[in-house]
Structure formats: C-alpha cells, structure tokens
Amino acid sequence: MTHTPAAIALSVQGLQKTIGKRTIIRNITFDVQAGEVFGFLGPNGAGKTTTIRMIVGLIAPTAGRILIDGHDVRTDFLAAMHKVGCIVENPEMYKYMTGWQNLEHFATMLGDCTEERIHEVVQLVKMDARIHDKVKSYSLGMRQRLGIAQALLGRPKLLILDEPTNGLDPAGIRELREFIRTLAAEEGLAVFVSSHMLAEVQMMCDRVAILSGGEIVKVTSVHDIVEHGENRVEWTVDPLDIAHRVIAQELRNQPLEQVGTTKLVATVTRAQTAQINEKLIAAGVHLYSVTIQNQLEELFLQITGGESIA
Predict the structure, then answer these.
(1) CA-based angle 42:46:47, to the nearest 5?
(2) pLDDT per residue as tens digits for the range 117-137
(3) What is the CA 67 to chain-centroid distance, rounded?
(4) CA-based, 20 to 30 A from 241: which of 29, 115, 214, 271?
(5) What is the pTM for the complete model shown?
(6) What CA–CA distances, in Å, run from 120 to 25, 47, 113, 151, 153?
(7) Taking every annotated instance into account, which residue ranges of this chain make up the domain ABC transporter (predicted)?
(8) Under a CB-based contact definition with an 8 Å cutoff, are residues 283 and 246 in contact?
C-alpha cells in the first residue's frame, strides 16, 4: 500500500517584504500540510505578524508567492481567502448578542453559509449548551471557541491562529490545545499557530518554523526535537557523590554541573536520560526528581542567539 502525501493547504514561496530601504522579510519559504498543526515562532520584531498579514492579503509582498489550497493570493484573491479562516489574538464579537446571533451575522456576510453549517460548527466547537447565551457571559476560552466556530463557517482548508492562548488560564490553554489537535486530526484542517508559548507549541504542533531577523532559520519536526535533540536535565538525588560518579561515567567527557547539595545538571539526549536513570537506581541512589527543560525552548535559544520570544 503506497502512502499518499498530504495536500498542501498553504505554500509560502520566496516571500519578501521591503519597506523603504529596509527589508523586513527575506526569502521565507515553507509549506503547511492538511491535517497538521504548524507552529510559527520568533522573537519580537522577527516578522511573524508581517508574514501573517501577507498570507491573509492585508499587505502585499514585495516578492514571492502565497498559495492557499492552490489559489494564488495575488492573482486569485477571493478564491484564496475563501479557503482560510483567521483569528488574531482575542476574537472580536458582539457581546450584547448571543453566540448563535453572532454566527448568524457572520454567516450572512459569507453569503453561502446555511443554518445547517452553523449547527455543524457549534457542535464542532462543543458549544451546544451555551450558544444561545449572550457573549458577554462567556469566559475568554468560550469566546476563543466561538471565534474559531466563526472562522470555520466557510469550510476553510487553513485556519490561522495568532497567539490563541493569550489570556487563557491553564485549564483553558489545555482545552484549546486539545481542541486544535482534534480539528487537525479529525477534520483534516491545516492549523497555522503563531505563538510565544514554547512549551504549549511543543505539545500542540507537528512541525515548527523558527523565524529570526525576518528569515526562517529552521523548519523541523517536533518529534525530532523531542526524540533526538539534547535536553538540559536536572536530577535531584541522594547521595550526591555516588550519583555524580554514575552520571559522570555515562557522560564520559560531557560537562556535569552540581547545583547545591542535591542536584546535578547535564545536557543529554532522551535515550541517555533513560540510561542514566536506570544506572542511578541500580547503584542504590534515591532519585527524587528528574526535570527536563523544554526542548523547543533550548533549540529556539540556540538558533536565535538567546533572543526573547515574548
């Protein structure tokens, strides 16, 4: 049985944006496939928002092409925009209206959206119980879900979410993450997520593009980062001297740092971490905790020279 490659929902090819004499986006190229969650990361001023504005046709690129479900944003704008739904930060809704009334209003603007489709998106975002309540009574997480429902009304192939977890509490963030994963897996939607929350991106996304200084410096699979990347690992142990000897033997010439009287820190792969844990237990060391720092954060800091993403 041959594997059919996923359709390309978004193709960005050689994108460039120059304002005056300053080039702020340089030769950006990447694809987003149907059914995947694609993370778009970069420090402040890296060009994330400018790129998104070009993708959705708010500003024109100086050079390059953007194809949404095969439609060129420059030459076939209406067809391209019909295939994309977009939410930038917190969606703006009419708070004095119900969720249903808001969706009806946006459906009217689309022109070809039926009441049946409104029912479908309400079920999709699991808002059946509250859809006839006024939006002013909704939590931020519910308003986010209503915004996504609105973005899905036109059956887009691509959903763009710019900082979707802004302002959400931990429960809301987890709920949104799981919902986004479900949209991609069950609906076959391509979801493009711009975010500064690296731990969330690592749990949510299939692949990530890292932007720095207006250029893509890396596009990589999150699985590869987790499985093959090196992680900063901290062990809390007792006794320290035996643990130090065991870990040092496993690391050979790799650096091993001591923090206080109970902690040891080293940069190792996931496989090395498991081997070290087994050796520590076999040596009779009490292993109180093993803390692995966010791998995506480590990679991000390495390739952007330590620039803050916030």
Answers:
(1) 105
(2) 999 999 888 899 999 999 999
(3) 20
(4) 271
(5) 0.78
(6) 38, 35, 11, 13, 9
(7) 10-238
(8) yes
